[in-house]
Amino acid sequence: MSQSSIDIPGLPGTKAFTRPLNKEDVDICVNVEQAFTEAERCSKEKFCYRLTASPELCFGLFVENEDGSSTMIGHVIAVRSPYPRITDGSMEMPENWRSLPDDEPVYVNGELIGNDKNGDSAAIHSVAISPDFQGKRVGRALVAAYMKYLENGCFGLSRAILMAHDYLVNFYESVGFKNRGQSESSFAGGVWYDMDYDL
């Protein structure tokens, strides 16, 4: 699994690296996701689905510990979507997904549910930083590294899309996303803004 060293100005002297994630990383993703309110957290089952359906679009940030082990302190979790905006359906997962063919998209009432392997948007559903590492510019370093990873990879994507809380719009704009206005989604009862990044 390819690792890339990353410099995080807010963590001087810390050795850090990024790498794509896979289904073996489910438990550490669940741990990092504790950064969100309970209503906004991804479930363990949904992590299993996303890390199986689109592992190439899921990305972790790790720090090396003194004993040589590493700890994931942040992640970006995404699926493929054919749409230019995040939809409520893309945030879901198909029922009985484990028994479905990998290459067959699932539609319910005309809406795509979860991942579409031919989608040209990276639909980002989670950008999470462990609470102990928040406020140290770790999120900025993670998102910048992820966008570079998408731009340099051969993923057949034309854009990255996400929904942001109003207080995070400026942050995402500062790393290259464009604000496309208030989202139609009411995920977790919040007000969100659609944002995109041309690749």
UniProtKB/TrEMBL annotation:
One MF annotation (Gene Ontology) recorded for this entry: aralkylamine N-acetyltransferase activity
InterPro entries cross-referenced by the UniProt entry: Acyl_CoA_acyltransferase (IPR016181), GNAT_dom (IPR000182), SNAT-like (IPR051635)
Transmembrane segments: none
Name under which the protein is recorded: N-acetyltransferase domain-containing protein
CDD domains hit by this protein: NAT_SF
Source organism, top-level taxon: Eukaryota
Entries under PROSITE patterns matching the protein: GNAT
Record bears the keyword Amino-acid biosynthesis: no
Keyword Acyltransferase among UniProt keywords: yes
Residues spanning the signal sequence: none
GO cellular component: cytoplasm
